[in-house]
Amino acid sequence: MSKLLSNRRGSVLLIVLFAMVGVLGMGAMVIxxxxxxxxxxxxxxxxxxxxxxxxxxLVQGVTAAEQLAFSVAQQNGVNPAELTVTIDSTAGTVTxxxxxxxxxxxxxxxxxxxxxxxxxxxxxxxxxxxVSGLAPLGVIWQDFVIGAQYDLKVGASGDTGNYGALAxxxxxxxxxxxxxxxxYNTMVRVNDLLPTEPGNISGPTTEAINWLLxxxxxxxxxxxxRVGCTRILLVPIINGLPNGRGEVTVLGFASFFMEEYLGxxxxxxxxxxxxxxxxxxxxxxxxxxTVKLSN
Length: 295
Ligand SMILES: [Zn+2]
Description:
By secondary structure, this protein is an alpha+beta fold. The chain has helices at residues 2-57, 62-75, 173-182, 202-215, and strands at residues 83-88, 93-103, 114-131, 139-140, 149-154, 188-189, 193-195, 232-238, 247-258, 266-272, 274-275, 278-280, 288-293. The mean pLDDT is 88. Bound molecules: zinc ion. The site of zinc ion has 7 residues, from loops.
């Protein structure tokens, strides 16, 4: 009888022990598992931001891209020792990977000390096949060199009746002036046909250019300009200018840092590489890119 009782007591003890281990295990799953999930989500956010920042900076070179990726990851709580940044400059991609060891609390009782969590993200800088916010100035294709000056609008020196002005979303000088000031707020794509706006349109050009120069209040210069500065003009690259009112074909897009106004509706800018929001797709590569996570 007593043997039976003690046996029974033993099995009760055993059941309690198993139950405790079960409760501990469940607690460990909830607390330490939660911690693992939290750390892995934090890492993913950090590597996403680092890869995007790196890809966005790739136009300034591999070193600049790598430095920014590290600094953005650090701002997001990733230790440089946890981070690896790989840059493929041919493909235009930046991959950021982070590995972190998470030390357990409750699960230690069950013999689990720690577990690694990791996250990886790749972002690319791609040619754009469509953008909005264009300046209504068609620039004829040539082999653009970064920092070199180009005519964005040729002033009174045109010989076809066209001086580089485009009629985006309508004709007339006030529409042209507003497009030059604010950017044409409709998606334009490679191979689109755009109508020209013949004439020098001196008054509206002068008004818009002076306004754009004035809106830049931070003293931007070509070598040191802010993202989104009003002196940066995003323009369509075109095949050539027709005689009189006609159409031009969009080959791609380029950005220029506008030089001081020269008068006579003559607009010049220095070629820059630049990131915009746009549609990814095949396009003539004229230095305008868009940046996206690729996985
Ligand atoms: Zn500026």
